[in-house]
Write a structure and sequence with these properties.
Number of helices: 17
Distance between the termini: 22 Å
Bound molecules: alpha-D-galactopyranose
Strand content: 15-25%
Number of strands: 27
CATH topology of the largest domain: TIM Barrel
Shape: globular
CATH superfamily of the largest domain: Glycosidases
Strand order of the largest sheet: 5-4-3-2-1-9-8-7-6
Number of domains: 3
Structural class: alpha/beta
CATH class of the largest domain: Alpha Beta
Largest sheet: 9 strands, parallel
CATH architecture of the largest domain: Alpha-Beta Barrel
Amino acid sequence: MNRIHYGGDYNPEQWSPEVWAEDMKLMTEAGVSLVSVGIFSWATVEPTPGAYDFGWFDQVMDNLAANGIGASLATMTASPPPWLSVKHPEILPERADGTRLWPGSRQHYCPSSPIYREYAGRLVEQVAQRYADHPALTIWHIGNEYGCHTRQCFCDVSAEDFRRWLRDRYGDITTLNEAWSTTFWSQRYSDWSEVFPPRTTPTFGNPAQKLDFARFSDDAILQCYLVERDIIRKHTPRVPVTTNFIGLVHKPIDSFKWAAEQDIVSLDSYPDPYDPHAHVEAAFGYDLVRSAKGGRPWLLMEQAPSAVNWRPRNAPKAPGVMRLWSWQAVAQGADGVLFFQWRQAQGGAEKFHSAMVPHGGPDTRTHREIQALGRELAAAAELSDSLVRAEVAILHDWDNWRAVEGDAHPGVTELLPAHRAHFDPLFDAHVTVDVVHPATDLSAYKMIVVPNLYLLSRDVAAALTRYVADGGTLVVSFFTGIVDEQERVYLGGYPGPLREVLGLRIDEFWPLPVGNSIGVDGGKGTIWSEWIETEGAETIATFTDGELAGRPAITRHQYGEGVAWYLGTRPDPALMRTLLDRVRTEAGVEPVLPGLPDGVQAVVRHGGEADYLFLLNHSGSAVTIPLPSPAVDLLGSSGSPVTSVDLAARGVAVLRH
Ligand code: GLA
């Protein structure tokens, strides 16, 4: 990219050409280099079927080119025009209970609809042909936040597509019956026509059917993306394509699978300014999106300049927060900082969503901060293409996420809180983390953390076992390794395929009543407890009260050249921090800098010629941080090397070493 891009969603169709002229002037002054255009333009460029009106859009593209601003050019298919659903009401999606979703907002299409895909494809063909050689075209922005609102469709068209998907996966109905354990509750199918999406049922539906429907729905949406991507590729094989993931992680869309189909990944991120840990939540999402593309730089495609409009109470970003959180994304590997949206809408459902140019115009606090950040980022071009490296990986798998949160389990196990329980203490200890799919090559990591990987394939279990045997450090939390990819339990004692490496067997699950905790040596356990029988593992901590008092709670097993830890409960945050500090110290994992104050985030991006240390003060107080060696602060005024950095509350420094 050769620079850190700056910009946002630009919706000129909502404004007159006089406003466009002011937009160009203000964008230039703010150092804007990339804007997403056309996302919601379908009804304006194709006002009636097949009658295209691109004249106004040509002007917009020409304006951008004339001002040296790139277009992240949308395929314009995110919100079908009203005429399409009048002409073809069968494109409208249906919920599990049969409710049809009507036009009047956006994303009102059934992902499996061949009619939607056909009309969308025709439009994309027009857009791609028309702008293939336009000088403003910088990157293709396919669709918009796929799966944001319409995540699954249960209509008859989807049902037929689901059957096709199942036939591809299982071949014959007997194999499907086995995979779905249909002898249970008399669910055996004798013909494909009897198979439906998991529509609303009297009680718990078949878990394997639900999991397959989640996989299918993701694939159906991905197919919409691929149809458009392939048209684009035909016309512009060298222009990169992306689509913006919904922040920070979104259960319906498997970012790992989707990332493989994109040239650069991008993310929309809306941490809540009222949440004191919002930056930690964001950090987890940024580590994941970066890892999804093997550590390559990514784009922050959308964030709010200040408040959003879709929470019950929408906090503005206090002075300095927008800058701090923007630099956080860059620190964690982003090569672009973009916003939703450029100019705050006068009407429509998002009129109270903040913008780079607020209702009050350019003479506003938000716009002044936007201008200042644009100047800073423009001067930091050398950061682009530098890479973040981590020694620790947390394993995340969309299949597992969908399965572990299923119905009728021993207790409720929500995956994102489980991730955060492990991620936050590492973040607080200033340790850099990747968040990767379990089937990734893990050999280069010093430490692997596995929170509640309930669904685990035999292959991944074998790879984790080898990883430890070869000298790795593994931390596994409860309710991991319980079922295979079809939600069938591994028999003979939990966690079947990990028993050997962990050196234990779990006899029974003892989830804790809501809000309760249980005593554990050194602190408390939350959420869960279990009856563990060690088979070679050493007990590090025992439960100290209740029926399990005196039994193992946390174990450690030397296996081959490595070590495998097991947590039979979720330790309280202080105990988790103590435990993970011990595990990582033994594994040789160091913080980015020793002795950093609480609330200061530190990340290094490695460039070809220099390393860049980012220091971000998320705390409310000023701090002084001594540096290991003299370095130039790219954001400082002096230009000469410094040996320590004074960071105001919400302050940022980027140090070139
Ligand atoms: C999403 C969408 C945008 C806008 C923002 C508002 O990210 O992609 O079009 O609706 O939300 O926060």
